[in-house]
Amino acid sequence: MARIVELTYPDNVTLLPGATQNWRDLPDDRRSREDADPGTTAGTAEDAELSGTRSDRVAAIGLDPAEADESPDSYVTPDAGDIPGPGAASPLLHGIVDRLFATLPAAARRCLVIGPHDPRLLARIAERVTELTVVVRAIPDAATIGTALPQATVLCGNLAAARRRGGTYDLVLALDDVTRVHSLEDAPRSWRELADEVVACVATGGTLALGLENDLGLHRVLAPEAESSRDLDGNWSPLASWDASRPRTPEQVAEFAAAVGAMLAGVRSADRTIPTGPTSYQVFPDWRAPHTAGTRLDEAAGPLRDLLAALAGRPVTDRPPAPGLLQRRAVAMADRWPDVCAGWVLLWGPGAPTEEVPALLQARGDGRTIRWVAAPDGRVRRTPVPDHDIPGSTDIPGPTGIPSHPEVPDPSPVAVPPLGRTLLLDLVEAATESDTPRLRRLLGGWRRWLESHAADGVLPAAYADARFGNLLAGTDTDPAPVPLEPAAAPAGLPEVIWVALADLLATWRAAGIRTPWPTSMHPHTVFRALAAMAAVPAPDDVARYWPRPDRGTPEDRPMTRQEMMAVITRQREQLHGAWSRFHWDEKQYLTYRAETFAGRVARRLKREAVRGARTLTGRDDAE
């Protein structure tokens, strides 16, 4: 007998044909009762499932729970910041949307968001439009978004029914691709068919923003498991399998973008303000959490492309460097980063921001986004950004730690080393070659550079994140390292050094890098050896920095295949070392037993010889 389950959802949620009940695209953030906030009661069963401590939810997006309430720049909004989401859940895409709204016409805006998106991003959009409509296919997701955004209209079902109900919109956003838009209740459709249906939702003179994941991206190659092998709700799509209509190369994306531009201009022949070539951002290094974007990279000068190689692999907040250290190095040396980007964000419309020159967007851990362009002297510099473009950008310290007002360019252009070389890559090269003198030289120079910027044993925030993947290596003209990412707050010099050394050791072990130390050696011993090379005393409590340094090893994400193979290789070598020592101990023991037995036999023979001699002497005396 079937069991009837009552559906509970807010009044601003409307169910349409194709709504799916037992499905969820947004992550199911279930928490145990012990983690629930004291005195907090959930209004619905869905609220109870998604409830959890605020510290856990704040930490999940890389912020310090102790500072989240005090930081004015944290993008945990008071309305909808308690729910994590898969679509556009990154400061980078938040910054791209902010740039889009800064250039849109000031006329009244009806906005349609298609697919599951981060409720924090939806809250930012709701503040800038007169009417917000969100379309999702799962009823639990609709209830989640409707509860977080009571001012929005949430339509749950297929996109065709939503378009018949709401018509066209001034602004259409589909930043999470279209693979999780089509209802599970409908027949499979191709990617291009669904993308054309998204384009049909744009009103005359409207703006469209569409995200497109790259199936050939480096993040797919380095993924711990193939996308087709995952079996969670959000990984399943009713689109046609092995869809050939999906763009997979920069050339195919350009053809698709031109076709969409022509479609928009052809539908409204009287309106020629729609450009056929959209603004295209290539995002790196991962589709779910990108932190770097580039535009017009095919025209970019060498220093800007070298900077992209460094930015794509840098650590952000408490996350370690992106996986695939050796693969990323190979891509940089082959100059193929545009081909292996994680995806594209395409913007069509009269209000879409345009880039006159190649540029990079860097989303920092503090939620701010800065823009890099090539300088005429072969270096790169940060360009001014309007206050309304990037929230909180009135006092953004540049890589040199000098605060720069948004209307004044950074006075210190940066010389980028060839191929975006960082200190991490120099140390990896030295460790792989077992070049211990070079290791001492690099670590000693790094320590002296930190000491030169410390005041009373405290480093300013601009230099407090001294992890080697965050430091551009010096050049012939400027040998000093350049930080790519500031820390959240100033920190003590010893703490900064110890965290960076622990992060270096964690990166080596995760990537399976060959080092001068035996694999079977305890990590604490190697950590103390690195501290000695840097000429700093090791901490008394090494265990606090290893096996999980404060901002080091990636315990919260699955390991890549390379990392798992590194663990297997390390364990095999440790087992081989243990067996070798066992056999050596056994041989020594057997040698000891043999020598002891031989000594006992010799002494016994000596005693028997003496006794025999005495016996013969007694017989002779008797005779």
Please tell me about this protein's structure.
With 623 residues, the chain is of the alpha/beta class. It is built from 17 helices and 18 strands. The chain has helices at residues 45-50, 54-59, 65-68, 91-103, 119-126, 139-148, 159-166, 191-199, 218-221, 250-267, 302-312, 325-334, 423-432, 436-453, 493-511, 523-533, 561-622, and strands at residues 13-15, 110-114, 131-136, 153-156, 169-174, 202-213, 279-284, 292-295, 343-348, 359-363, 369-374, 380-382, 396-397, 403-404, 458-459, 471-472, 482-483, 491-492. The strands form 4 sheets. It has a 12-stranded mixed beta sheet, with helices on both faces. A two-stranded antiparallel ribbon has the order 13-14. A two-stranded antiparallel ribbon has the order 15-18. Strand 5 (169-174), helix 8 and strand 6 form a beta-alpha-beta unit. Helix 13 (423-432) runs antiparallel to helix 14 and helix 15 packs across helix 16 (523-533). The longest helix has 62 residues, at 561-622. It is elongated, with a radius of gyration of 31 Å. The N and C termini lie far apart (116 Å). Mean pLDDT is 76; it is low at 30-87, 268-276, 386-410 and 549-556.
